[in-house]
Specification:
about 40% helix; elongated; 11 helices
């Protein structure tokens, strides 16, 4: 343990002897280390040399630079872990009050009662230790905030952000997506990838929980589903294999809801598997909209040994499939009212016929307008796929 460093500033030479004699045991044990100066200018020189002085015991009336001026210079250092104890004659209460009003920790009067001074120093040490602990915690918090900001950038970077994602097929399909985390990092993700010339994989998922654990599980889940999907497994088989791997390694019973589909560009067929995820909306070219049947598969990553089943739908030219996470339909306003499926259906019906980007942006805007000043409680992710030809 490092000694508490104390700087005594006084033009009376006998004070140095008194302090070293009175605190000799603490000095020998390495608990206190004293430094001495005879005026404010000398004190500043010592402070420049010894960066970790903890306590300054300063006389007020000194030549060259008095204690009040020294106190002003110390305040300019903006070091709350440095405490000043001012010393002056008993009758000099005006200067003592000025010192206390300008940030001195405490004061002592001459002749100095060394027993009382010892108690004052101990009190100062307690406050210094508290402040240093708070400063260390603040530094850790700032470091964590920096790490989270970098993690957010990394997480956003692994999601597809270039639209259209398949420009060579832009005359046949339209795709857009967004993810807005509730915290610095989130557990939602979306993905799309080319399986072959005629088929693309489309994924949206929502990991249980929020924050850093969910973000890590999200990255693992995305990598597994994409890797298995690129091996040309049907959606149900892809989620079956993903479930086996995730459930075997799941920590704290984490899981993920997943909608994974394989879209056939030439026919408009979407073969999909819904692993416990929200039912997507299908916006028909004729202006009508419907919600796909509720998932008949369980969540992914919770229980080993499950088989996930496929379903399929046919997208006609002009139809748009909208996928989303429950941060959309379960968003609440300041009155704790829920956005809900009905309001979402109305919003999407009004957006039907627009581009996929306009649809996802419009849906997000609708949720934010509904929530108002209420804090976002869950990640919001929306993905839209439209058959254009």
């Amino acid at each position: 343990m490092n000694p508490v460093k104390i700087l005594s500033v006084d033009d009376e030479m006998d004070l140095e002897l008194l302090l070293t004699q009175y605190f000799r045991r603490k000095i020998r044990k390495g608990e206190y280390e004293f430094f001495f100066a005879h005026n404010g200018l000398e004190a500043l020189t010592v402070l420049l040399r010894e960066k970790d002085i903890n306590i300054i015991l300063s006389d007020i009336n000194m030549p060259e630079m008095d204690g009040l001026t020294l106190l002003t210079k110390i305040n300019e250092m903006h070091n709350p872990a440095m405490k000043c104890i001012m010393v002056s004659a008993y009758g000099d209460m005006g200067n003592i009050r000025s010192a206390m009003n300008n940030g001195a920790f405490d004061f002592a009067t001459k002749p100095i009662d060394l027993d009382d001074l010892s108690v004052t120093i101990e009190k100062a040490i307690e406050q210094i230790e508290y402040i240093k602990k708070a400063q260390a915690e603040h530094s850790q918090l700032e470091s964590l905030k920096t790490d989270l900001a970098v993690a957010r950038e990394i997480q956003q970077a692994i999601l597809p952000r270039v639209f259209p994602p398949f420009p060579e097929n832009s005359s046949e399909i339209d795709l857009a997506a967004l993810m807005t985390p509730a915290k610095d990092v989130g557990g939602d993700f979306y993905d799309f990838f080319r399986i072959d010339e005629n088929r693309i994989g489309v994924v949206i998922a929502d990991v249980s929980g929020k924050g850093v654990p969910a973000a890590i599980f999200m990255a693992v889940s995305r990598t597994l589903i994409r890797t298995i999907g690129l091996q040309d497994f049907p959606p149900g088989k892809c989620l079956t294999k993903s479930n086996e791997l995730l459930s075997a390694e799941s920590v704290d019973s984490m899981f993920v809801t997943v909608f994974y589909g394989i879209y056939h560009i030439d026919t408009g067929e979407l073969q999909y598997c819904n692993g416990g995820h929200n039912s997507p909306f299908l916006l028909h070219a004729n202006g009508l909209s419907e919600m796909l049947p509720v998932s008949r598969n369980p969540i992914v990553g919770a229980i080993e040994g499950l088989d996930f089943k496929d379903d399929s739908i046919q997208l006609e030219v002009g139809d748009t499939l909208v996928l989303y996470t429950d941060g959309v339909n379960e968003a609440t306003n300041s009155s704790f009212e829920e956005y809900g499926d009905d309001r979402m259906a109305e919003t999407l019906t009004a957006l039907n016929g627009k581009s996929c980007k306009e649809i996802v942006d419009g849906q997000l805007e609708s949720v934010r307008a509904f929530a108002g000043e209420a804090e976002q409680s869950d990640d919001i992710t929306i993905l839209a796929l439209k058959r254009k030809a």
